[in-house]
Amino acid sequence: MTRKKKRSGMRRPTLQSVKEKGYIRDNVFGCHLDTLCHRENSTVPKFLEKCIRAVERRGLDVDGIYRVSGNLAVIQRLRHKADHEESLDLDDGQWEEVHVEPDYSQKVSFMKDLIGCLPLPNHDTMAALFRHLLKVIEHGEFNRMSVPSVSIVFGPTLLRPQTESANFTVHMVFQTRIVELILNEYHTLFPSQ
User: What is the C-alpha R_g of the chain?
Assistant: First the structure.
């Protein structure tokens, strides 16, 4: 018998039969909620229950919970494991820092290095503008301008992305935080001013 005839006599297994045997597992992410719950014979996805337990066990007191963006590589790895592994263990240590943010002193040091790299006109213009903004804030009792309010106003103006995107609200959060850091640490960032 030729190879062609042998192959035509053998039928490929159906997707459903391969899934039933456990060779292929349906995704958790991107799956319709009703389908996922039906497949898991529950009304709440098991992965969500695992995440809630893990957060409530060790994350409720973490600064930035649900506010600080997660590390994309870690999130992608977690999603892949959730989609492809039956026994995902969220307590095995590799998921401790889903959101990783440098500590405050690292941010200040990094900002100081960046500002130090600026051409002199940019550096001095930035120093003059932020020195002025600090004077505005000093009069906050009268003008109601605080570090956060000045940061909200000036962040998007001073730190515009090179190309506009649909994520302008995400950019705005970071722009505001950067301006706030510069205002709070002005004397460290511009020591000669």
Answer: 26
pLDDT digits (tens, 9 = 90+) for 57-66: 877 777 666 6
151, 177 contact by CB (below 8 A): yes
Please tell me the predicted confidence (pLDDT) of residue 9: 57
Please report the sign of the dihedral spanned by the C-alpha atoms of residue 90, residue 66, residue 38, residue 76: negative
Residue with tokens 């515009």: 160
Query: DSSP 3-state assignment of 168?
Result: helix
- Measuring CA to CA, which residue among 38, 50, 102, 59 is closest to residue 78? 50
Measured CA to CA, the distance from residue 105 to residue 58 in angstroms comes to 25
The Cα 55–Cα 90 span in angstroms is 10
Q: What is the DSSP letter of 118?
A: S
DSSP state at residue 145: -
CA-nearest of 50, 46, 49, 11 to 25 is 46
| Interval 153-168: pLDDT, tens | 999 888 877 777 666 6
Residue type, 122: N
Q: How confident is the model at residue 135 (pLDDT cuts 50, 70, 90)?
A: very high
Distance (Å, whole) CA 120 – CA 129:
14
Specify the DSSP class assigned to residue 192: T
Q: How far is CA 107 from each of CA 102, 103, 154, 162, 193, rounded to the nearest angstrom?
A: 6, 6, 19, 22, 20
